[in-house]
Amino acid sequence: MFEKVGVIAKTKVENIDKIIKQLVSHLKGLGVEVVLGEEAASVLNENGIERHKLAGYVDMILVLGGDGTFISAARSVNESKKDIPILGVNLGRMGFLTEVPLSEMYRVLDSVFIRNEYHIEERMMLDVKLYEGDELIIKKTVFNDAVVNKGALARIVPLRVKARISSNIYHVAVYHADGLIISTPSGSTAYNLAAGGPIIYPTMDCVVITPICPHTLSNRPLVLPVDAELTVMMDEEIDDVMATLDGQIGYRITKKHRMVVGKSKRKIKIITQRDKNYFDVLRTKLNWEERKIRSLKC
Amino acid sequence: MFEKVGVIAKTKVENIDKIIKQLVSHLKGLGVEVVLGEEAASVLNENGIERHKLAGYVDMILVLGGDGTFISAARSVNESKKDIPILGVNLGRMGFLTEVPLSEMYRVLDSVFIRNEYHIEERMMLDVKLYEGDELIIKKTVFNDAVVNKGALARIVPLRVKARISSNIYHVAVYHADGLIISTPSGSTAYNLAAGGPIIYPTMDCVVITPICPHTLSNRPLVLPVDAELTVMMDEEIDDVMATLDGQIGYRITKKHRMVVGKSKRKIKIITQRDKNYFDVLRTKLNWEERKIRSLKC
Amino acid sequence: MFEKVGVIAKTKVENIDKIIKQLVSHLKGLGVEVVLGEEAASVLNENGIERHKLAGYVDMILVLGGDGTFISAARSVNESKKDIPILGVNLGRMGFLTEVPLSEMYRVLDSVFIRNEYHIEERMMLDVKLYEGDELIIKKTVFNDAVVNKGALARIVPLRVKARISSNIYHVAVYHADGLIISTPSGSTAYNLAAGGPIIYPTMDCVVITPICPHTLSNRPLVLPVDAELTVMMDEEIDDVMATLDGQIGYRITKKHRMVVGKSKRKIKIITQRDKNYFDVLRTKLNWEERKIRSLKC
Amino acid sequence: MFEKVGVIAKTKVENIDKIIKQLVSHLKGLGVEVVLGEEAASVLNENGIERHKLAGYVDMILVLGGDGTFISAARSVNESKKDIPILGVNLGRMGFLTEVPLSEMYRVLDSVFIRNEYHIEERMMLDVKLYEGDELIIKKTVFNDAVVNKGALARIVPLRVKARISSNIYHVAVYHADGLIISTPSGSTAYNLAAGGPIIYPTMDCVVITPICPHTLSNRPLVLPVDAELTVMMDEEIDDVMATLDGQIGYRITKKHRMVVGKSKRKIKIITQRDKNYFDVLRTKLNWEERKIRSLKC
């Protein structure tokens, strides 16, 4: 049973103050202690806990926002090294990670806190290490993807990828492209999908390498086992190339850098409901339900 | 001014009898003579004119149905050699060819017949000739596309394409694929689009060759000038390969056959309204209006 | 150590008689007993063992041919219920399954039989059951893929897919398409790739569902865990629809049929060499090595 | 008959000094006056004419390099307002614009200068105007493409496109993507192709709009008539967005800017040989000749 809930909210949303106030009051009514993150607290003119420290105070996080808010909450949980689960409530309609719409929030909270009815789903993450020469300069864990891509003015980037699989090191390919996405299954419906990559069931353990606008037309997305450790390097010096982690943090890289991506030991725990399912979200978000182009004989 | 209107209707539609009855009565009220096609007449237990003869009796055709009904009406008009325009009313929401929804039919009829306000848009067609050896066995004009494709059990078909452009004959390529679509701009939003081909503005004069599931991964759709006469032949004998014209007429072909596709001298005239436009149909039919996958930061 | 080797050969190949004769003689020289399959034997005017019985007599199979020959050999091994490994020698250059080119055959045979140096790689398969109503009419194991697709004349097929994952049954989607491919990782570089599916590392355990020319343009290939049991049914009666298993066996299906696809308990064992790797085959077969479209600044 | 030839060369090429020396001597032997561009001259330690002035002195340009060198030569010719043709010699194997390989240069020169045997092919260009508010800040003519795209760190850019076709202004779409390519037929085999756009026969008159990694998965490349004047604007302020013309010149743009793209009155004239053809270049450059993934039955 969860006793202390941390609340992380996206605050640039209409009526967010009312939503948070009601939520806090409802949770207190259920006998749950509520700890607000800084942003959520500021909406109520209160003091809250910095996002990256919040996980330390609570035994579960409730995210109010979209998938982006969820990801930044997941990052905080991860950095706290505390292994607590996250419940995502979408302030819009429905997200891949925030699968509970606001209209169903109270019903779901009652399931979780009164009847103890919920399910914990685990999602894999990737550890990304950026080296400059032999020096490790950045180490981060990503939930969605690690991307190397060129700036608007740069020309095609040749990116060499190596894979270490069961202690053998293989040359995968040199991609000539606008960039490269290394995505988790959770990230497969984000940038990877826009770049032509496949949808991967989110609880699977694997990675997908998807080139962005490859100039070798026969290049295709490549799904690899999660224990494949991937190394990405520029094969030729090109200006204005960046490594971007989960779409939010960017580092300028050169031919001296290499990005090493491998399975993270940590997983993110998501609180889900039995009656929710991934395929419903998929069909809704991607508009699969309607037949858009009808048969010529219609 | 149009004085005699032929009506071609899709009849497997709820309340089609009421719709046709009201339409006939409305048109008569506007002083227009109405000639029903066979199917439309049968719904009212009357005798009508066979579809392919209808164009001979009237100076415009009104189609009630979907894009498929429109195409078969266009075929009739074409075979009649009479150069009359077609107005398409969609019994569902909106089609690429039947751009007037039922709910706006009377408003549009009043524009056309009372205020004489309408616009004639011309759409190119392709003449398709099928030869067995030197013998011409079939000659048809298509509005959407000529397709060569394999049956469910056949293996990859190697299809050799030649193009005659300004009196030179060029070897285009041998495609190894499930088949090949040669499409008009009107047909570009039909099978061509499902196979990965581009959308082509419908009043343009060109053709697009799109391979279906090509095994040479670098194959791409190819847009050619309309005066390119294309010849398609099987490069190797494969069982169970068909040539299909406008998705409706199929001919089994062998290595002895060749399909020759070129610009038709005839064009189809479509009656359109100034306030309708192609891009509106495109965005609606293809669901472009909504952003389906939101930014990670949403 | 392998003592009895069965040989299955593609026989429509130049000099196949000499190749087999030399091979037999070489293997005998190594002290190995050779049992020829029917086709291989017929080339030497001898009597051989029927392909599907061959596995019963030997403790390893050597395939001389292409990936297709390998697959049919794998099917025989599988039907024999004997768990023996297969070594694939390609009579052309290189295959995904037959990774040893003819020019390296003797070197590899010496590794395997003299120095006992080889590696066994396991590939998953899928069990496919076809039901008509409640009656199980066909049960087969596929190495590459189970495909449902329409004939050349059929219109779009609506295919409903359900997935059973950890005892829950989910509605995945209704695909409106030319057909649907359910592929193993081994099959991912075959029909799946031509239809736009991803490449999946061959020793992984998962399946990919790839629609063929989907009319819902936002449909994308979907990678699922191998323990997902998939059921495919037609959602509307369409004539001329077939289920095809490994590209070779076809069954006409109707709305009364359902195809159930799940993980096979059996795996195929492939004899590989340490110095061979999947990415080399990939780059060579898909032409990734050369940069085909150079930068504008080249 | 051409009497004065300007030579523009890519100089970072092995033995370029010998190649130019021989070329000059050969042309002089044919009675042709040769004027070297600055770079070509510098290789011989001579003084040459600045690239953008060269067209003013000669009646044809010979380009030694790749397609990129050709494009910059075309830009010079265009800026000179002199309507002289260009002959492209590729220092590598073959280009879309530089279709003569070095090994055939002398044979082709003899055709052109001795036997007067050649063909002039015209390629359309696009005039691009960039406005900040109402002020025209840049006006350029592009040979390949005008691109708007985001930098490595920017999020999805919403780009609103309007089209003026026969004096009507239409809302085309708001694309949510990494960017947008507006390409000529000549440019269709460059960035457009990498982003999933179709190949367009190079002498056609049309434009293609291709979104780069669109997040609306049903977006597709759109081919429009050349007289469509397109306006592209950001629909929301996003940092780090650039307009790039022919891959070489970049301008940072904001929500206040709009890019207007329309048919150029000028065309580029290319000197071609009867025995060369576009499809040969296509098949060679895109590796269409070989069947890369063979049938399972091979």
TrEMBL record, chains A, B, C, D:
Residues where NAD(+) binds: D67, G68, N144, D145, R155, H176, D178, Q248
Active site residues of this protein: D67
Xref: SUPFAM superfamilies: NAD kinase/diacylglycerol kinase-like (SSF111331)
Any one GO molecular-function label of the UniProt entry: NAD+ kinase activity
InterPro entries per record: ATP-NAD_kinase_N, ATP-NAD_kinase_PpnK-typ_C, NAD/diacylglycerol_kinase_sf, NADK
Family: Belongs to the NAD kinase family.
Protein name: NAD kinase
Originating organism: Hippea maritima (strain ATCC 700847 / DSM 10411 / MH2)
Lineage, broadest ranks: Bacteria, Pseudomonadati, Campylobacterota, Desulfurellia, Desulfurellales
